[in-house]
Amino acid sequence: MVQIDQAKDVLLLVDIQNDFLPGGSLAVKEGDQIIPIVNKLQSKFQKIVATQDFHPPGHKSFAANHEGKKIGEMIQLDGLDQVLWPTHCVQGSFGSEFSDQLEQKNWLKIFRKGLNENVDSYSGFFDNARRGDTGLNTYLKEIGVQRVFVVGLALDYCVKFTALDSIDLGFDTFLITDGSRAVNLNKNDDQLAIEKMVAKGINIITSQEIE
């Protein structure tokens, strides 16, 4: 069991937004099933923060912004490999909003990402080129956080990269598996993501192990 230290621990909710839920433009299978689990987890933490994918409509990661390109194709974007996604989480859209089933009243802060149309942002800490900083790292250190517990969507992209950055930045990092779901563009992407996190020293737990 993992005992929560309210002074040092934070629950980090990654991109639990309408476009990543069933019916959304980039729906994660069973993504809605994490919401009751996440809501129950929130009652165990005093420090809760969230990330929000928040793209301008012209974002270059959208297949619709590249003539003749299809969703799932790879391109070079700002010198980085980039998978082309459906248009999603556009600023001001319903899809960018958090699920209305998600408890939000105790959140300390929301960190928006993906605002620069020329580079994608999977991690809640930095953009994919590591040139843009959301301020999450500085904020967590200012409020005394030492351990980060990560949940959200999607496990094989934004959750994975957020957790990897978290541990690189010196936080003891936990992935709560039943509070996350994967896109799985390729079969077993979720398992590969977990293996990569384990190799970096991230703790893999379930919500039942938290007290």
UniProtKB/TrEMBL annotation:
Family statement: Belongs to the isochorismatase family.
Ranges for domain Isochorismatase-like: 10-209
Molecular functions per Gene Ontology: nicotinamidase activity
Name of the molecule in the record: nicotinamidase
Entry's EC annotation: 3.5.1.19
InterPro entries the record matches: Isochorismatase-like_dom (IPR000868), Isochorismatase-like_sf (IPR036380), Isochorismatase_Nicotinamidase (IPR052347)
Alphabetical UniProt keywords: Hydrolase, Metal-binding, Pyridine nucleotide biosynthesis
Pfam families: Isochorismatase
Pathway: Cofactor biosynthesis; nicotinate biosynthesis; nicotinate from nicotinamide: step 1/1
